[in-house]
């Protein structure tokens, strides 16, 4: 199991992932994928090396949840691409 903290973390919650701290969340803008005759899909992208990771939310989960943000922070720490 990996436990990581952002280098810019200002919170002192050593027992929690720093992605729970609002100060540590990356401020990325939302992009939209247009599909003919279907609703647009919102996504956020972190550029990086291959292999990349794609987070597909499920039941009671979304792209701004703690799991999605924890995976993003992990990918960022390794330099891998990530889409949520």
TrEMBL record:
Entry keyword set: Hydrolase, Signal
Keyword Nucleotide-binding: no
InterPro entries found in the cross-reference section: ABHD10_acyl-thioesterase
Keyword Kinase: no
Molecular-function GO term, any one: palmitoyl-(protein) hydrolase activity
GO CC list: mitochondrion
Signal sequence range: 1-23
Top-rank lineage group of the source organism: Eukaryota
Family, as annotated: Belongs to the AB hydrolase superfamily.
Protein name: Abhydrolase domain containing 10, depalmitoylase
Organism of origin: Molossus molossus (Pallas' mastiff bat)
């Amino acid at each position: 199991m990996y436990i990581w903290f952002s280098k810019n973390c200002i919170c002192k919650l050593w027992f929690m992932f720093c992605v729970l701290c609002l100060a540590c969340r990356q401020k990325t803008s939302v992009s939209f994928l247009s599909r003919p005759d279907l609703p647009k899909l919102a996504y956020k992208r972190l550029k990086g090396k291959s292999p990349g990771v794609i987070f597909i939310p499920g039941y009671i989960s979304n792209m701004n949840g703690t799991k999605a943000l924890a995976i993003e922070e992990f990918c960022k720490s390794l330099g891998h691409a990530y889409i949520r």
